[in-house]
């Protein structure tokens, strides 16, 4: 009876998440990073995608953008189309965790794993037009296939696909290589199919390496995600949703579990331990290579964390385990269903974006035809995307790497906007030529102070900035 209840709860959890992710996709406007996915996907048909990625337009490999372009060609609503790979990936990750946990310790462990996974803050990537949700799904099923001898042939597809989705995904493949090396050391068995799959995963890495190296050279040392060894507890804490002192305990706990797994010949721990170390591996690679690193680049660590808890606790009577797992999953389903009900009442993404406070402020600008410059490029891109044509024609972004780096330490953001200008029909300009053509204009400030370097730059050049009545707008005059 409890076994059947666990199966029903898992099916409900999967269904509720599918509904929640779909509603979120339809109701949530695109944000800055997602709009780079949209613009890059549109370049595939014109044959300019590879060149744009080579120039550093986006840090995601071409396979990811090709998949998004295919979805956009099939689905009318772009918010659902560009987020569909993430939704599918999240459902795959959930089912993969359940299959892994059930295969090792039974249905209760599988259900507990997916419930913990659903509670982690990375759940937002299950409905975001970036590759992280899909990477989780592909990795989760690669883990399942690695565990079962009869499924090894699927690794020939899954590991190369994972390596094609993100430039740091090869580190996840390296975790499989480490696990397979430990398996050989313990069992003295060469599993050729697994090693062949690991070798095939190197092909997309080699093909996209020139693009990655050139894009990194374009970004230089001013990338927004500069690696910092002091950020280790934050990387773990932000991914797993744990307090910092708990996140710090993840590393020694992982070491202890690895030793236990090798001693007991528990194959699942051969793989889970290196995956738990992914943030450290990514940080180390970034520091050695001069590249970038943010915690989400090591997102498969959440799969290992979600599995390690139910697989590591001492065994209890099966009835008690099933009741605990069922209670946890029922709570997750309840909160997810409540979230879905709230989303139903919200307006569609297009309407919500056009009614945003920033676009409303821009819309209330005097009808004198003066340009409206968004000081924060993070807000400019959504505004330009959703504004009605008449307003979009007035909306500008000014980008200067030197000024942005000197005043706000945001040179890489300015570089991104200048690169995007070459591939999208947007009002992005260098400050000098712009103020020569438009001596008077409005400035709209928003968000983090460091992103709003433009007012300080204008004051350095003797501009006066006058706050407009009942508005966020500043009138800039020489």
3D structure, described in words:
It is built from 27 helices and 6 strands. It has a 6-stranded mixed sheet, with helices on both faces. The N and C termini lie far apart (78 Å). Helices cover 66% and strands 5% of the residues. Strand 5 and strand 6 (473-477) form a beta hairpin. With 478 residues, the protein is mainly alpha-helical. It has 2 domains: 2-344, no CATH class; 356-477, no CATH class.
Helix and strand layout, with pairings?
Layout: H1 2-27, H2 32-42, H3 49-54, H4 62-74, H5 78-81, H6 84-105, H7 107-119, H8 132-147, H9 155-163, H10 170-187, H11 192-200, H12 202-219, H13 232-240, H14 244-248, H15 250-264, H16 267-276, H17 278-289, H18 301-312, H19 318-344, H20 349-354, H21 357-363, E1 372-374, H22 377-386, H23 389-392, E2 395-398, H24 401-408, H25 411-421, E3 428-429, H26 431-437, E4 441-444, H27 454-460, E5 464-467, E6 473-477
Parallel strand pairs: 1-2, 1-4, 2-3
Antiparallel strand pairs: 4-6, 5-6
Give a concise summary.
With 478 residues, the protein is mostly helical. The protein has helices at residues 2-27, 32-42, 49-54, 62-74, 78-81, 84-105, 107-119, 132-147, 155-163, 170-187, 192-200, 202-219, 232-240, 244-248, 250-264, 267-276, 278-289, 301-312, 318-344, 349-354, 357-363, 377-386, 389-392, 401-408, 411-421, 431-437, 454-460; strands at 372-374, 395-398, 428-429, 441-444, 464-467, 473-477. Helix 7 runs parallel beside helix 19 (318-344).
User: How many beta strands in the DSSP annotation?
Assistant: 6
Largest sheet: 6 strands, mixed
Which descriptor suits the 3D outline? globular
Nearest-integer average pLDDT? 88
In the predicted model, the low-confidence regions spanning at least 5 consecutive residues are none
């Amino acid at each position: 009876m409890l076994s059947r209840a666990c199966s029903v709860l898992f099916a409900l959890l999967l269904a509720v998440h599918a509904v929640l992710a779909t509603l979120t996709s339809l109701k949530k406007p695109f944000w800055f990073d997602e709009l780079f996915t949209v613009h890059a996907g549109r370049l595939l048909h014109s044959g300019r995608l590879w060149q744009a990625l080579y120039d550093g337009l986006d840090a995601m490999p071409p396979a990811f953008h090709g998949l998004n372009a295919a979805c956009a060609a099939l689905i009318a609503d772009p918010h659902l189309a560009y987020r569909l790979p993430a939704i599918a990936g999240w459902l795959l990750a959930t089912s993969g965790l359940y299959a892994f946990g059930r295969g090792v310790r039974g249905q209760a462990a599988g259900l507990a794993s997916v419930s913990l996974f659903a509670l982690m803050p990375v759940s937002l990537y299950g409905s975001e037009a970036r590759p992280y949700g899909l990477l989780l799904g592909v990795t989760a099923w690669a883990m399942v296939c690695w565990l079962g001898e009869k499924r090894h042939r699927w690794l020939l597809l899954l590991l190369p696909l994972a390596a094609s989705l993100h430039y740091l995904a090869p580190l996840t493949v390296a975790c499989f290589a480490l696990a397979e090396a430990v398996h050989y050391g313990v069992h003295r068995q060469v599993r050729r199919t697994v090693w062949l799959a690991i070798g095939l995963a190197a092909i997309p890495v080699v093909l996209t390496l020139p693009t990655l190296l050139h894009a990194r050279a374009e970004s230089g040392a001013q990338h927004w995600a500069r690696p910092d060894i002091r950020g280790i507890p934050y990387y773990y804490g932000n991914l797993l949703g744990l307090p910092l002192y708990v996140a710090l305990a993840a590393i020694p706990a992982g070491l202890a579990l690895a030793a236990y797994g090798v001693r007991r010949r528990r194959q699942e721990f051969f793989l889970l331990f290196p995956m738990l170390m992914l943030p450290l591996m990514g940080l180390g690679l970034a520091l050695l290579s001069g590249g970038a690193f943010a915690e989400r680049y090591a997102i498969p660590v959440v799969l290992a964390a979600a599995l390690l808890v139910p697989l590591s606790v001492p065994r209890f009577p099966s009835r008690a385990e099933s009741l605990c797992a069922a209670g946890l999953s029922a709570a997750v389903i309840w909160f997810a269903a409540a979230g879905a009900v709230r989303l139903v009442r919200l307006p569609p993404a297009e309407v919500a974006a056009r009614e945003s406070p920033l676009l409303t402020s821009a819309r209330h600008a005097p009808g004198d035809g003066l340009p409206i410059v968004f000081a924060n490029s993070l807000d400019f891109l959504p505004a330009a995307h959703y504004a009605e044509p008449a307003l979009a024609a007035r909306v500008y972004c000014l980008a200067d790497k030197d000024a942005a780096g000197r005043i706000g330490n945001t040179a890489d953001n300015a570089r991104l906007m200048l690169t995007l200008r070459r591939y999208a029909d947007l009002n992005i300009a260098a400050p000098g030529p712009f103020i020569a053509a438009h001596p008077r204009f409005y400035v709209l400030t928003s968000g983090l102070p460091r992103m709003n370097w433009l007012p300080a730059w204008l004051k350095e050049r003797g501009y006066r900035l006058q706050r407009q009545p009942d508005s966020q707008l500043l009138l800039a005059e020489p």
